[in-house]
Please model this.
Amino acid sequence: MSQTIRVLVFGTTGTGKTSLCNALTGENQKVSNDALGVTFKSYTYEEVEISEGKSLIITDTVGLNESARGSVPSRDAVKALIKLLQDSKEGYNLLIQSFRIPRITQAEENNYEFFVKTISGSKIPTILVASGCENLEPMSKWKEENGNTFERMGLEYKDIICSCFASGGRLASVYDELRDESRQAVIEAIEAYATVEPVKLYTTMESFMILLKRSWNWLAGWLGVDKLMFQLNEPLIQLLIRIGFSREEATLLLGEVGVPTSK
Ligand SMILES: Nc1nc2c(ncn2[C@@H]2O[C@H](COP(=O)(O)OP(=O)(O)O)[C@@H](O)[C@H]2O)c(=O)[nH]1
Ligand SMILES: [Mg+2]
Model:
């Protein structure tokens, strides 16, 4: 019997999330050469086989980065959040946080808090993929020297994979080799740490609402729009109207919410 492993990739913009997803799937989604990924969107790749009897469905996100803080309209953020949660309805077997060496910033902590703790309720194993290790020999040197910094910050990872997912340019042939090696290492880690069954984030409409409220309230705090947080017992539609959707738009948005298929 074959197993489908569902993985969510998150982390600061520009750390190599899309490059990683492209390398794992063979798809060619656009990588960003600038740091303008302000539209907090998610994208789920086509299912691909990663080894005998195992296939992968990977979801890429834009992630929280400081430059987006003042510039994402609440309407867009809510829409993107609802879409992300809908895309997540079958749950995940593993989370991957993407990070670019060398600097560990507040953004790493924020992304961890939002995706690992708030959205996933700390129920899903997480690994860290550190990109930009092309100048280290071996690439894993970074982990040996810096890996415990995360632990001290309270960020827990099953493993840290030091990698390079760059492509093109004058170093193309070097990158190709390092990318193959990194892809193999990430696939091995996915197989080692993914749960047997996907962990669902919600199972009923009611638990969806609770999750949406919890994650929106966190996000509203991060975006600095505290006045748009859910109030106790406030119906979702009321909040959406407060954020600026018309009643029709709000109804349409909520109508798209599905609950997980039971298994
Ligand atoms: N030097 C180097 N560049 C990388 C690496 N991984 C990705 N990049 C480059 O970093 C830029 C941003 O990558 P992207 O995958 O779009 O990051 P995302 O915003 O997290 O999805 C692109 O120009 C990539 O080619 C890496 O391991 N090393
Ligand atoms: Mg990207």
In short: The pocket of guanosine-5'-diphosphate (ligand 1) is lined by residues 13-19, 31-33, 37, 98, 131-132, 134, 164-167 (CB under 6 Å). The first helix runs from residue 17 to 25.
